[in-house]
Each structure stands twice: as structure tokens, then as C-alpha cells.
Amino acid sequence: MDFSGLNVAALLPELLVSGGGLLVMALHAAFRGRQDRQLVWVSLASVVAALAFCLNPLTVEPGYFGSALSDPMAFAGRITVLAALVLLLPGGVAYARSRNLPQAEYLSLSLFAATGMMALASAGDLIVLFLAVEVLSISLYCLAGLMGERESSRQAALTYFLAGSFASGFLLFGMALLSGSAGTLDIAALGTGLARVSGTGTQWVALGGVVLMIAGLLFKVGAVPFHSWVAEVYSGSPTVVTAFMSTAAKAAAFAGFGRVLLALGSVSEAWVPLVGICAGATMILGNFTALVQGNFKRMLAFSSVAHAGYLLLGLMAVGAAGESLEAVIFYLLPYVLANAALFLVAAKVSQAGSGNYKLDDYKGLARRNPWLAGLLALLLLGLAGMPPLAGFMGKFMVFSAAVRAGHTGLAVLGILTSVVAVFTYLRPVVYAWFHEPEESGALNLDGGLAFVVWVAGAGLLLLGLWPRLWLDLCAGIGV
Amino acid sequence: MEGILFVLLSVLALGGGLWVLLRRSPVDSALGLLTTMVAIAGHYMLLDAPFLAAVQLIVYGGAVIILFLFVIMLLNLRQDRLRARRLAAGRWVYALAGVAVLFCLAGIFLAGGTSGAVDAGPSGTVEAFGEALFRRWVYPFELTSVLLLAALVGAVALTRHAAPKAEDKA
Amino acid sequence: MLTLILISLAKVVAILLVIILPLATLLTWVERKQSAVMQDRLGANRADILGLRVWGLFNIIADGIKSFSKEDWVPPFANRFLFNIAPFVGLFAAMVTFAVIPFGPPIHIAGQEIALQVADLNVGFLYILAFGSMGVYSVVLAGWSSNNKYAQLGAMRGISQMISYEVVLGLALVGVVLVHGSVRLPDIVAGQGEHWFGWIPKWGVFTQPLAFLLFLPAAIAETKRVPFDIPEGESEIIGYNLEYSGAKFALFLLGEFIEIVVLSALLATLFFGGWQVPWLADSGFVFGNGATVEMAPLVVTVLRIASFLLKVVFFCWLQLLIRWTLPRFRFDHLLRLGWREMLPLALLNVVVTAFVMLS
Fold this sequence. Notes:
Largest sheet of chain C: 3 strands, antiparallel
Mean pLDDT of chain A: 88
Largest sheet of chain A: none
Low-confidence stretches of chain A: none
Strand content of chain A: under 5%
Number of domains of chain C: 1
Number of helices of chain A: 19
Strand content of chain C: 5-15%
Oligomer: heterotrimer
Structural class of chain C: mainly alpha
Order of helices and strands of chain A: HHHHHHHHHHHHHHHHHHH
Structural class of chain A: mainly alpha
Distance between the termini of chain A: 29 Å
Strand order of the largest sheet of chain C: 5-6-7
Distance between the termini of chain C: 45 Å
């Protein structure tokens, strides 16, 4: 048989990670669940191998007839997803063990979800794009419901499933219209395909497709006006799963859809205003709702809605002015690092305190563990976008790209809402440092969590000081 | 001949869809859906895609709708036991929204006309289908298998309530 | 166009009147006789016309008259429409499957080649699976529309059994398809006309023994007969057709016997060379040692059709033998056998066959 044109190596990260997921299930079955504690090492091994490959790929040619791409964005998206996994898996397994969740299923579903996310970030055609979205969504629906004995977890899974299926319907219908009118499934060729039919009636079919697809995207990333599921799903799911959803899944979605919108630059007048309105509304609603939350997990949930708004702003700039996706790519990594670490910290602090993620749990944290309180402040300020942390660079790049693309008003709105965000993020910091503890006694971190928090903090600082480090890395890997 | 068949199958497909919506008995609705699916299989035959038609029958007729019926029977959803849930004023809003979407889509398609922009490719025989599926589109095919596997693992994980922990005993 | 339609019609009529219906009706009598033989009884022999008994063959007519003259009762609160069509759905699904089975080699009449097959579909074997899977609707509709909880429970047992074994059935056939590189049944039959070393015919049962061993029980499970008769369980637990009486009940029985015939034809076609006779080529017998026996084309054709019919009759008998030999499965055993033992074996068969074909 003829396998030329496949270039299997282009898909190696996805193969490694999904193979890891398979191996986890097989070992779980082979040892009848007795060796589940060791499975996390298998998972981590596959993730690290994939990460090593992404940093030093054997091939940069696209594979599978152009369905699997190897451009900087594909690698940046994959690395971001894998980094989130490296941070989340050890803590996640500890979390799963302490709350009696099935570890093997947690691990393999996470790896399958990660496969979908990486495939989404490197999707070269619409079919792969849709399937990747479905792989990651289905895995996440199930992960959200893993804590089955809790009503909130079941509710989260169901809500996520219903909202997600709805979004998938939009997405698929939009894709059908779009590819039908452009005459191609190849994402990169969409622009030329649409240029060919512009001025004819088919252009309206394409327009309908674009609008439906963007609606699907907004649903998936939880942007206004399709944000209603976010609070329930994020607060009801097991915290490590929420962390996974709000970091890796969102990064992959923005990488994948960034590519589509980049290709649709020629019809930007059709979708930029639409995305602009949603981006503005998302920034306002996300930040103000986060501000009034008394629950740390919900606060993070709404802040991630707000971040989706900033990322949408970055995508708009891409479509209109032929900007590259650099700003979006850069924005994602620090966001993922900080959010992943914060969710894990939230789980730890909550478990030691009220058990339901009250902000009050953070009162006097500095007395109980000054290092943790310090790193908490670092992470939160990083999310808020304080210089010299990486969050600042991310916001700076997104806003300046928006200004260059002529969206000055939205950029100003972004800056104003960022100020609101600072208040939101400062509240736990103030609680930690300037309030008396409600409980006494040291709050010690176990090795895995300490590793995560330190790595995330160091990453934020490093990327903030040398932003080119990450961008040059991505540009150096891909073609 | 083809024209007559097309109209006939379309009427069946749309009628099945309406039947799904209008009947109160879940079993009737499922059978309406079956009608639609079979009619669409007929459309595939008309489009010279026998493989797709057969798969449509096997997957939707033989598996999906049968499973629907199985679940309906398992839950014993008889129509006399279903509460007559009236959407009252709300349903007109839903109906209007549906009609609005219909008009938008119809408008889009009428404006677009029948510009056959997509090349239908070779005929839908098993050979042509296999050639396309396992060569050009092998990656999506494999990705689908990951999708199904994830769904399977998830289904098992979600339905296994409070599994006894093996390591506690060990 | 008109000749084509006429030819097709002729084929349909021939298959129905020559193969399916006579065999199926005859089988009702054979089944009674077979069970009698195996249980050391005399069996059906009482029906006589003017003192003539012909080994009880008139019992077929008596059975027919009896069931058609009984009251055709529809239970109250039943869904009349579904209740009435359910038995026909089963009949229909079983009979249309026959359309793609070649019952003889192509023949030439007046310069025209006529395939002895109703429809030479490009998707032959998928067609069998597609309409085979429609048979389950008969069970579902009968059980549901009767508005009887026992019937409904029987229908649910039927669904779980039939969709479980359908998977094994399809996967077993994939091995056969892989060997012949085609899903068209005429190709599969033609491929089985070859021989190893000139002596051993390349029949499916030799090229795909595991597939045969999996296909046979899975297919019997699809016909819902002992040892897989849990959906019906006529001896004690009663099943999906318990509210049926008279003619419609007889239709269920007839459907069952038609399924036996169709299954036999499938077994013959897929695993026993279809219409092929070992060592018989178009010109006559060609043996492995080089000896040949010349034969007229007409004789060859007749021999081949006869061989197909003989195989069908043999497998009908084999199924009756199995039905009266084995006891019934327990339901959990049945599902475990299907999913945990036969399915992995079927998958293994597909993988191994694929590797063998590739190398």
C-alpha cells in the first residue's frame, strides 16, 4: 500500500497522547485497577514525550494531505495544551484520589481530550476541526460528570452537554454552508474560494455559514451572549476538570478558530463587527460579574469569560488588518499557566477551609503559608495584567494589535475593564495578606502542588521579562 | 422517474420530521424519525451513493432508532402517562423563531441558487468510498475512533456509581 | 427497459414461488417431523384427505386453515396500526434480503446475459446487514403495540439480543469480504470457485473458519430460535408476540421459517461456495490430477443451481437439528457470550485476516 503523502510524524504528538490514553485504559484493565496509582506516570510520560517532540519536531511538513498542519500556531497550541496537562495531571490525580473519583478514567479522558485539543490547534481542514472539537467536548462532558454522586457535578455535565451539542449543531451547519459555498474543506483555501463567489448569490450562503460558525465558536469559548452555561459548568465540575476546561480547551479553541478567521480575512467586514460586539460585551460582563463573586471558583469562572473577551479582540485584529496571530498565541500561555495553578490552589485552600471555595478561606493565608500567599498574589496579578508579569505583555500585545487594526474604542474598553479586573484579583490577595486568619495552623503544600505553583509563577515572570522567548520558540519550530 | 421519486422521498422525509414533532407518543415520534432516515437513505440512492444509503439504514435504522425505542420502553414512556405539557403562549414564540430561521435559510439558499460549487467527486460506490476514506481522509477517520473511544470510556465512567475501590482491599 | 423490468419480476416470482415459500411451508412440517424423530414420536400424521395421509404432509394445509379461521383478535388499548403491520415488517425484512443472493451462475438467453440474482448491488453485503437489521422492528413494534407488559419485556429482550449479535454478525462477514476483496456477493461466490492444490475448494468455511463459527450462532440468534429464543420463550416465559392470534400469529411463524431459508442461503453463499460445485468449471469437471470431464453448458448450469438448492436444504435441516438439540441460554449468559466472547474473537478474526491479506 502507498503511504506517501501521509507523513505520520506530523501527527506524532496526537498519536503519543492518545496512545497514552489507550495504554492507561489497557493497564487499568490488565491490573484490574490495583495499580491505578502508577497510571499517572504513564500519562505523564506520554505527555512529556509529546512535549519533547513539539519542542524538537522530526518534521515540519504538514501531514495527512494537509489535514495536520505544522505551522507555529499548531505547535504553540499543542505546547500550551501539553503544558497545562503537565501542570494539571499530578494535582488532578491527587484530587481524584482524595475525592474517590475513578483515576484511570480521569487520566484517559484527559488524554483523549488533549488529543482533541491538539488536533484542533493543528487542524488543516474543516472536517478535522469539527471532529477535534467533538473529541475534546465529549471527553470534557464526561469529565465534568465524574463526581457523579454530587448533584452539582451531574448538573454541570448535563448543562455542558446540552449547551455543547447545541453549539456543535451551529458549528457543523455553518461549516457545511461555508465549505459548500467556498467549494473546499481546506481551511487555508477558504479565503480564495470565497473570493471566487463574491458578488454572486452564493456569497450570502457563505455569510450565513460564517455567522453560524462564529456563533458555535462563541458558545464553545463561553463568550457573551452564549456564556450562560459557564458559571454552572465551571463551578459544578470537579475543580481539576474546571481548570482543564478553562485553560487547555480554551487555548485550543482559540488556536483552531484563529486559523479559520485568519483564512476568512477577505470577508472580514462580515464578521468583525459581530465579533467586536460580542468581545466588548464579554469583557464588560465577565469582569463585572467576576467582581461581585464571593466564591473563588466562580470568580475564576467569570474571569475566564472576561479573558475570552480579550482573546476575541485579538482575533478581530487578525481578521481585519492581516495581523498575525502572535498576540493571541502569546496571550494564551501565561493565561493557561496562571489559571491552571490557581484552580489547583483553590482546590487545596478550599479543602483546608470551608470546602466550598469561599473567598473567606483566603483570609490570613500569609500567616499560614507566606510562600503560597506570595505566589497566589503573583499568579492573580499575572492574570490581572500587572507588569512585569507575562499577563501584562499579553494584554499589551492584544490591545496594540487591536489599535493597529483600527479598533481603538474596543482597546480602550479592554483597558478600562482590565482596571476592574485588577480589583477582582486583588481581593483574595488583600484577604491573604491583610486579614486575620479564621483558622490557625500552617497550610502545607504537597510536592506536586508546590511544583505547579512554582513553575507557573516562574513562567509568568520569565515570559513577562522575555516575551520573545516564547514567540521565537514557536516561530523557530514551525514553518 | 427520478423526479417523482425525489418528490416522494422528500415528502416522506419532511412528513416524518413533522410526525416527530406533532405526535405526543414517544414511540410514534421515533417511528417518524425512522421514516425520515429511510427516506434520506433513498435520497442517497438517487444521488448514486449506495454505500452511504446502506450505512444510513444500518446505523440509523438498525441501531440508533432501535436504541431510542429501547430507552423509551425501558422508561416505559406511554403516552397516557406523559403529562400533557403545554407550552401555552411560549410555543408561539418558538414557532415564530423556527419560521424566522426557516425564512432566513430559504432566503439564503434562494439567493445562492443552485451554484454547484462543490465537486461531488467519484460515485459513491464502496470502492470509491473506501479509497477516499482510507487514503485522503484517514486522519479524520482515526480521529473519529478516538471520539468513540472517549465516549465509551466516559459512558462507563459516568454510569459506574460509587465503584468499590480495589486498592482499599488490596 | 421493459424487458429488464420483466426479467426482474420473473426472477422475484421465481425466487418466491420456487425457493422461499415452498421451502418455508415445507419446513413447518419438517420441523414437526424432525422433532418427532428426535423425541422418538410419530409426529404430525393425522391430517388425511379421503384416507390419504402422505406422511402427514396434509398437516401443512390443516395448519393453514386452522390459523386463518381463528379469531383475529386485537387487544384493547393496543395501537391497531402498529399491531397489524408488525408481522409484515418481519416477513418483508426477511424476504428482501434474498434479493442480493445469487442462486446460480449468469445464464445466456437470446444473446442476453441474465444474472440469476434479483439485484446485483454494489453494496451487496451491506444490503444484507441493512435489511437484516430491519427485522428487529417486527419484534419492537409487536411488543410495544400489544400494550402488554409481558410482550413489552419480550420485545426488550429481543432488542438487546438482536442488536448485540448483529455486531458479531457484521464483523464476521467483514473477514469474508476481506478475503475476496469485494462486497458484491457474485464476486464472493466466484472467488470460492478456486481450489488449493486443485483439490480443496476455497470455500469460505476453509478460508474463514472462525468467521463461520461466529456467523452461525450469531445468525441463529437473529432468527430468535432455540437456543436463542429468549425474546419469545414460547415454552414458559412468553414473549413479544403473545397477544397475537390467528393469521397474524401464523405470519410470525412463517417469518421465522423464511428467516431459516434466507439464513441457509446466506450460509451457502458466503461459506459453502454458493452455486459452485467443487471442481466444476464452466467446461465441466476439472480435477486436481488433470483429469477432466467435458459437459454441456446447460448441464453445468443445472448442476450449479441444484448444488445451491441442495446446500440451502441441507442448512435448513441443520438448523432444525440444532433447534431440537440444544437447551435455551440464560439471558445473562447470552449477552456475555455475545459481547465478551464472540465479539473479541470476531475482532481478532478481522485483524488477523487483514494482516494475512496484506502480507
